Amino acid sequence: MADGEGDPGVFTATALPGDPRLLPTVTSAFLGTRVFRDILHAAGVYSGAAGDTHRADVPSPLGLRMAAPGAHSPAESFTLDTWTGTFSHTIETPGYTATQQLYAHHSLVHLMASSVTIRRLDGSTHPVTVQLQSLFVPQSQDLELTPGPDFLGAHYIYGQTLVPEVEGGPRPTVHMLWTPVPQSLTLGGEERERRWEFLTAVAGSEEEAKRSYSAGLSLAAAGSLHRSHVRAWAALRRGCSVELDGPLALRQALHGCLYYLLSAVPPRDSPRVPFHGISPGGLSNGTRGEDYWGHVFWDQDTWMFPNILLLYPEAARAILQYRMRTLEGARRNAQEQGYEGAKFPWESAATGREVCPEEIYGAQEIHVTGDVLMAFEQYYCTTQDQKLFREEGGWELVEAVAQYWCSRMVWSEEEQLYHIRGVMPPDEYHSHVDNSAYTNAVARRSLNFATDMARDLLLPVPEEWEDRARKIKVPFDEERKYHPEYDGYSPGEPVKQADVVLLGFPLLHPMSAEVRRNDLEMYEPVTDPAGPAMTWSMFAVGWLELKELQRAWSQLQKCFSNITEPFKVWVENSDGSGAVNFLTGMGGFLQVILFGFTGFRITRPGLLFDPAFPDDINQLKVSSVSYLGNKLDITITREEISMEVTETSQEPPASPLEAVLESGQSFPLCQGMA
Fold first, then answer.
1. Which of 191, 428, 466, 647 is catalytic?
2. pTM of the model
3. Mean pLDDT, range 28-54, rounded to an integer
4. Structural domains of the chain, ranges and CATH numbers in brackets
5. Is 415 a catalytic residue?
6. How confident is the model at residue 673 (pLDDT cuts 50, 70, 90)?
7. How would you write 45-85 as a 3-class SS string?
């Protein structure tokens, strides 16, 4: 494999991976597919009831593959360019090149496009023909589709999903227009070069599908369709720029993670299209039986969200709005289990009702409710956006989560503390445990945030919120000075994944450096080496916090066994099992860079920083970090930290910033000053 002449953001190969799951994805906020695949998915379009709810397969006309059967010694290459958000396939022969491009248009989120360009390399005048191989059939196992009249030369089908998520609930509608694809394309004898464009528009209404297709057709006629996508994508990448001076493999992994994760978020200039959350395998995956059926887990709120918040708070807000829209479903979940408030589902689709196929996870892995609220807290600390809470339903969600935790606790007369019993912690090797350290700590954090938020909004604070936050048990071994994972945990018991180590980060649970070290030492050797990919990133962050740079680096290195070649697609488990295009692992990896190397910590008083680099890294530059309405460019080297305010918002006005050193000395940060 040759990586784009050393460019860490361009992945090129002469052959495709044998496992089609490892092909790269092209995705927008609304549409996604894997290259050369005959199905695509549309955001929020699920079919199937309850535990059978899965992303509905929409037939894709874009799963084209070029072939040049008559060519002599053709050379093939396949490239994912993360700078332009484009996949390309090139066939080169002595007489011509044929290049196919595929992309999900970043700003026209209902549009995907493919193009084929044939260019003559010699002076010959004979026709050049390239075949297009396609498995496309305008039918779906999940949609009842009906053909409609052609529109501007495009074919048209529309229909609804077959089975609603909840009985009597809505069945999403899909409208699709696409350019008919011939079996072959021919460059005439007198032509030197020609380009063919194939568009597919998918939307929830006929009007939106036609509007998107028409817009794409106009741009294609002007020769600027791909350019308009690249321009929108490049603007996003500039605004979420992370540059690292370090090993090539690390820089490639960084650019791969940014590409796949940023593909999943809405564009900056998007119309008010509802956002439908991010599943572990992204929008390109999630058919029945694949990548957790496209459901949304804590993976979104805990593992992906902090990176998006730091670089692109508008997209972070859209993620929170997804949780707010599904609040009523979460209320029903709590009610059905006999509790008050709102219990967010372990697996969520369109309604917020529990759609996990296995009851035990939905019933016991309740920490997800606190994980959701922690994302709201991080957002509020970073933006001070009270409008989301006062006017748009955010406070109702905060209050409902606090009510749930209060109703889920029971008082222990023996310990004079509140307990949460019968849960599954993040470590899914254990269930029916009492007082999971992580679950109880995240519940305490929920209640503390609800209390603080109520005061900021000048609302009364229920006494029980403060009382239960003070008196909830978080297991701690006074003798060994560490946090047992739950009541009765014995040191040495195997653990599936990062669990107690999450108390230090991202929970920021109060503890000494000695206890933080002991937690890391206790759980690192007993954590399953075949566990999910995000685990090692949290051990890396912990060791960076303690300035154990070599230990941090060795943990980060473990992530590379989950990154596949040649397109840097992550797998959930290092043996290739589990979800693919595993955005959760990518989110954890990015947190090592954005929160581990920088030492950033989002707290109520301020954005803390305490950088630490392993030996192989010399410099890190993060552009357009968003904080209290300001944009900062932050450059960290081994010798110094440079911060520059590059932008301040006017509406609402940005808060003035200052950098405060440990000594107490402070420096105002003004726009244009470094």
1. 428
2. 0.96
3. 97
4. 10-239 (2.70.98.40), 241-288+529-673 (2.60.420.10), 312-525 (1.50.10.10)
5. no
6. low
7. CEECCHHHCEECCEECCCCCEEECCCCCCCEEEEEEECCCC
